[in-house]
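ARCHIVE CARD
CATEGORY: sequence design from structure
SOURCE FIELD: tokenized fold
FIELD CONTENT:
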């Protein structure tokens, strides 16, 4: 049995936090697919530039993949976490910048980029020599690991996700900021769910988990219980 748990969902739905803690409780590894897309975005910005219109829409998929191979951009298993590296440097902090956030959706919509990222994720999991891996992203259960025995799709209202995102940044949660952040997340949802390649949607056999009123502990406990019922040991 493939030892993969796929956790998908929109931005700020709690995917990475949940996946990381589920992996820790199970003694598995954690792979955040978004970190690899962000690392690629950082590499593209630093080595190619912002592209046409300053939004990455002039980027060439083959050129980005070539840069990724040359630098290289890769995932490295460190302890129980796959870390993103660019040219041998851990970029875990750098990829969270506003600059990267502004361009990552455009890059993630490029077919050649998605094909390359998907291959890297499968290679990383296969290199784990049978170790279980919790993978989170937006198309893990539908495209990357459709054969994963356990698929979870997390959701939450845009307002709740906005509140969480602002709290993560340490910003005061006031009405104006909440409204702007909620609008940005809703726009990201639309872009992710309507793109032609691998749109954001739950797999037919995914367990839907609305986290709007759940604590992180409740989310994690629910997924761990499902996992222990499916995976021996």
């Amino acid at each position: 049995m493939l030892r993969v748990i796929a956790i998908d969902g929109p931005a700020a739905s709690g995917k990475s936090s949940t996946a990381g803690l589920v992996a820790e409780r199970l003694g598995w590894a954690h792979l955040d697919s978004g970190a690899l897309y962000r690392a690629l975005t950082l590499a593209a910005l630093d080595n190619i530039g912002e592209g046409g219109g300053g939004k990455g829409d002039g980027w060439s998929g083959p050129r980005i993949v070539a840069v990724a191979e040359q630098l290289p951009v890769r995932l490295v298993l460190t302890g129980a976490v796959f870390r993103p590296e660019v040219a041998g440097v851990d970029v875990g902090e750098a990829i969270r910048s506003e600059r990267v956030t502004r361009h990552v959706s455009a890059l993630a919509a490029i077919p050649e980029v998605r094909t390359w990222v998907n291959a890297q994720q499968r290679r990383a999991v296969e290199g784990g020599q049978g170790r279980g891996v919790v993978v989170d992203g937006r198309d893990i259960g539908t495209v990357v690991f459709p054969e994963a025995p356990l698929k979870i799709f997390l959701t939450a209202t845009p307002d709740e996700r906005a509140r969480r995102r602002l709290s993560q940044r340490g910003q005061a949660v006031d009405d104006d900021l909440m409204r702007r952040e909620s609008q940005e997340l809703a726009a990201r949802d639309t872009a992710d769910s309507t793109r032609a390649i691998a749109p954001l949607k739950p797999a037919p056999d995914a367990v839907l988990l609305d986290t709007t009123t759940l604590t992180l502990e409740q989310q994690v406990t629910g997924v761990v219980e499902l996992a222990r019922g499916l995976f021996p040991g």
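CARD ANNOTATION: The longest strand covers residues 73-78. The mean pLDDT is 90.
SHELF: design records, drawer C
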